[in-house]
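Please describe the entry underneath.
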Amino acid sequence: MDCPETYQLVFQSSAVEDDTVIVKRTDRSGAAGYPVYEDETGIVRAEISERGEVRMLASGGHQLLGTPLVAPGPTA
């Protein structure tokens, strides 16, 4: 499976500007077997399939996880 190294997750909001987070592929796989991506802080985590399907993963208690739009991340 050929997965990108980075993705941009765009969390849309009607009240404020959209929030974009860059996530990088880790060496872990999620429950469905797809790569787990996370941001620099390790707080934002997502399992992303090769078709761009996103499943957000909680990194701590009391998180309310929305489903972001996903786009390829910036290239180095």
